[in-house]
Design a protein that fits this description.
Length: 163
């Protein structure tokens, strides 16, 4: 990983590379990824959208979809970012680790996403913002479910919206 490189001009050049084995060049948008170990949040960001990863262990008690008192400050910061963005739609996705089974994990991950949605609806002051909520259970892990640290990272709610 490297620090963000801002405002680097990309121009066409008259120079050519003589190698028939090379594929056509492709410009891939940079994505900035950051993690805050202290409050177990993460963030990915590119030119178009922001995705904020909120650790379920910070927002909720074990096996609960009731938001903790500490979650209010974190969600207030997320709401401010949504207010400052151009997004009309905010996606809220809940995830679980692979302990338990889908009959527990799917509803719990959705209930947690709905709890985050309910609070964000109250905190977001900009008009015209709609929320789409989905629970994914243990699908799409972002870390190794074989370790406790990995399972903690996989228990999350992700809030994604256009910049």
């Amino acid at each position: 990983m490297t620090p963000p490189i801002m405002d680097v001009p990309i121009t066409q050049s008259s120079e050519t590379v003589e190698n028939s084995g090379l594929e056509e060049p492709e410009i891939i948008p940079l994505t900035m990824i950051s993690d805050n170990i202290e409050d177990q949040t993460g963030r990915t960001e590119n030119n178009d959208e922001v995705s904020i990863i909120l650790a379920s262990d910070v927002l909720f008690e074990t096996n609960s979809a009731d938001l903790s008192a500490d979650s209010q400050e974190i969600l207030a910061q997320v709401a401010t970012e949504i207010d400052d963005a151009s997004a009309g739609v905010v996606n809220i996705d809940g995830y679980a680790d692979n302990t338990g089974n889908d009959s527990v994990n799917l509803p719990l991950s959705r209930e947690r996403a709905e709890a985050v949605e309910g609070t964000l609806q109250e905190l977001v002051s900009r008009e015209g913002v709609t929320f789409e909520v989905e629970g994914h259970g243990s699908a799409d892990p972002i870390a190794d479910n074989e370790t406790e640290e990995g399972r903690e990272r996989n228990r999350r709610v992700t809030v994604t919206f256009a910049k």
